[in-house]
Known about the structure:
With 133 residues, this protein is mainly alpha-helical.
Amino acid sequence: MAMPNEYVPGKCNIGHRGRATRFSTGIIILGISGVFGFLFLRDAAPSIVRLILVLPFYGGLISILEGTMSFCVFHAARGTYDLHEETWRTGRSKTRVEIPSDEWRRADRRKARFMHAEAILGAIVLTAAVFFA
């Protein structure tokens, strides 16, 4: 799916590099968490301990959502966008831009809340699959 190359309120606030980084990070987090949950926690740990997997599952799912939707929830929370961010960079981005309109910021926050809800629901489903496996 082609994503816009410009900021679109409530739809796109990161570019190709940010999308790739977030998607690959999410896949890695989900993979490691799933393997850990099914192979190590299933038999060795008490059932209640497996519930802690909801946290890495949530992190992996929110990262995958950000990568596939070209939208970063942290940028939405800060009221910024960054279409040209560098990968694996520490410190402050030189290409981050403040969103000038309050209406655009509200659209971004609305989208971020929806993404958080999707990731939480998915994390609960994945954790239940590990818990009851």
